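pasting for ref
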Amino acid sequence: MTSIYGEVLAEHLRAPRSRRDLDCALEAVLFVATEPLSLSNLASLLQSDEKTVKTAIQRLKQHYRNRGIRIASDGVSYSFATAPSTRVAVARYYDEPRVLSDKACEVLALVAYLQPITGAQIAEHHGADATHVLQTLLDAGLIACSPGEDSLLFFRTTAAFLNATRLVSLDGLPLPDVLGY
C-alpha cells in the first residue's frame, strides 16, 4: 500500500492530461473538498483554464443528474451534495452513532489543538506511528491534509469536525487546562 503522504503529493504535482483525467481529477477534488470551491480555485488546483474546468463541471453535472449525489453550485462555487431524493436515507445514516477509538480521539485532539501539524509531529506527541489512524480520520472527513513547504504534508480539522463536535469554530475548544493538561 502506498503512503497517504506520497499519494497526496504525487496527485498535487501532476496536472490532468486528457479530458478523462481532468474529469477524474475534478471529481476527486470536489469529493475531498471540505467547502465549496470557486471556478478559479478549481482551475488553479487542476492546472487548467476556467473555461475548460467549467465544461468539465457541466459533464459531471450531466453524469450525476439521476444519481444519489450531484454537483451543487451557488453560482460562485461548486461542491458535491446529496440529491434531495436521498434525504431520508442520509438522515438515517447521520442518526447512527459513530465511535472513534481512543487512539483516533487522541490523534484528532492533537490535530485540533496543534494544527497545522505534520505526521512526524503527531507521531512525536502520540508516541507511535499514526498513519493508519490518520487515514481513518481522513476517510471520516474529520481531518484534511495539504502540502506545505519542503514537501511536508500538514493535517488540519475540517468543517465536518466542527459539525461532529457541534462547535462553531475552533475557539470553542476547551482550554487545555480545563482538560487536565
